[in-house]
Specification:
By secondary structure, the protein is mainly alpha-helical. The chain has four domains: 116 residues; 62 residues; 155 residues, no CATH class; 67 residues. It comes from Mytilus galloprovincialis (Mediterranean mussel). This is Endonuclease/exonuclease/phosphatase domain-containing protein.
């Protein structure tokens, strides 16, 4: 009986151990279930990752394809860019060639324009003459010179033409007259002492001529300095009763209502300006710029910066000027100079019109020609003197053309005509 309880105890202990092991096994079984759950989750994640990897592989493949396409495009564009660069370089070269051609064209245009300007520098321009469709421009100008300027002597004209575009509004185009310019072998006024030579000629002509005028580019800047010698009765020449180089006629300024002071927008003076002022003082010639009409202000004539171009004249000549002005610059006439324009009222002249050699002029005056006495004049001509003149002309036919021979013939002709008028028919 004592052995049965011991067996029961051992069995109980065994069962207890089994229970404990089962408890441990259950606990471990729970852990296995957790592991299985975790493994299931891991499996799902792995599957997801597989899907993602497959997707990434697909995208990578697409990216590789796109990269290859982009690389191919890049190479293609690179080739096209290189071709465009070559075209641009060619175009740049063409542009440079075009610019060179334009520069050459501009230079040629300037040279042509300069030649045109030089060819027209000695031209006279007549404005305001009526224009007709079928006109003979040279005859129009001849008629104007003969009827309006009262110059009866036949004048040999050079090239005569109108210039500018025709105007349908009734405005008449100007007429350009090309003058014949003859240069002597020993050119006048070409020496450094040009002003002295001009002064000598003016003093020579002033004994015979009342209306004298000189104009052009003197390269002289005179500011507003006086171009005359003031007379107040206290000059040394008055005190010592010495003769002057030329009789001072500044009193005529007041008589002719001409301002004695002149204006000048160019306030600079140079050495040539002093020479021009001295020339005026010694010859009784006066600067017209800054004294008359629209040019009372003394406008600039060169590059709109200086006054170097002048009209100068005797006071008698200035008195018959109705207007003076500086025209707008035109490359047609000059490279840098603006034209100076004066209007002369020939009706105020008190001398006869015509052309007479300066050496043959005298102080004697002949009455104005009366056309009604033409027949009387012809009847009273001295046939002997006419024969003398004809003989002289016959004798000179065998000689080469010479200005002295021509001048002498003209002088003889003039002397004979004056003789007939004074001696044979003084009422003419």
């Amino acid at each position: 009986m004592s052995e049965a309880p011991d067996l029961t105890i051992e069995l109980f202990e065994l069962l207890t151990k089994i229970d404990n092991r089962l408890t441990v096994i259950e606990a471990r079984t729970d852990r296995i279930e957790n592991i299985e759950t975790a493994l299931g989750q891991l499996t799902r994640k792995v599957d997801t990752m597989k899907s993602d990897i497959i997707e990434l592989k697909t995208k990578t493949t697409d990216l590789e394809k796109n990269a290859d396409f982009i690389s191919n495009k890049y190479e293609e564009l690179r080739g096209e860019n290189s071709a465009q660069d070559n075209k641009i370089r060619q175009l740049q070269k063409d542009v440079l060639d075009i610019r060179d051609a334009e520069n050459n064209t501009t230079e040629l245009k300037e040279k042509i324009l300069d030649l045109q300007c030089r060819s027209m520098r000695n031209n006279l321009v007549f404005t305001g003459l009526e224009e007709s469709a079928e006109e003979n421009t040279k005859q129009v100008l001849h008629k104007f010179i003969r009827e309006e300027l009262s110059i009866r002597k036949e004048i040999q004209l050079g090239t005569v033409h109108r210039f500018g575009q025709k105007d349908n509004n009734g405005r008449h185009r100007p007429i350009s007259l090309g003058l014949f310019i003859f240069h002597r072998k020993t050119q006048k006024y070409s020496s450094p002492d040009a002003f002295r030579e001009i002064e000598t000629d003016i003093l020579k002509f002033s004994t015979k001529c009342k209306y004298m005028c000189l104009n052009g580019d003197f390269n002289s800047r005179t500011s507003t300095d006086a171009d005359f010698i003031p007379t107040d009765g206290n000059d040394i020449s008055d005190i010592l009763n010495l003769p002057e180089i030329a009789e001072n006629d500044t009193y005529k300024f007041e008589i002719y209502n001409i301002p004695i002071a002149r204006n000048n927008k160019d306030k600079t003076k140079n050495n040539y300006g002093k020479l021009l002022l001295d020339l005026c003082k010694f010859t009784n010639m006066y600067i017209i710029n800054g004294r008359i009409g629209e040019n009372m202000a003394g406008e600039r004539t060169s590059k709109n910066a200086a006054v170097v171009d002048y009209f100068i004249g005797s006071l008698d000549f200035i008195n018959i000027i109705s207007n003076s002005k500086v025209l707008d610059f035109s490359c047609l006439y000059s490279d840098i100079h603006s034209p100076i324009d004066i209007d002369v009222d020939i009706n105020k002249c008190t001398c006869e019109y015509g052309s007479v050699p300066i050496n043959s002029m005298s102080g004697e005056k002949i009455k104005k020609w009366d056309i009604n006495k033409k027949e009387d004049f012809i009847l009273n001509l001295d046939r002997e003197k006419i024969s003398e003149l004809e003989n002289y002309l016959e004798e000179t036919k065998s000689f080469p053309a010479d200005s002295n021979i021509i001048n002498k013939a003209v002088e003889k002709y003039y002397e004979h005509i004056c003789y007939f008028c004074k001696e044979k028919h003084s009422e003419h």
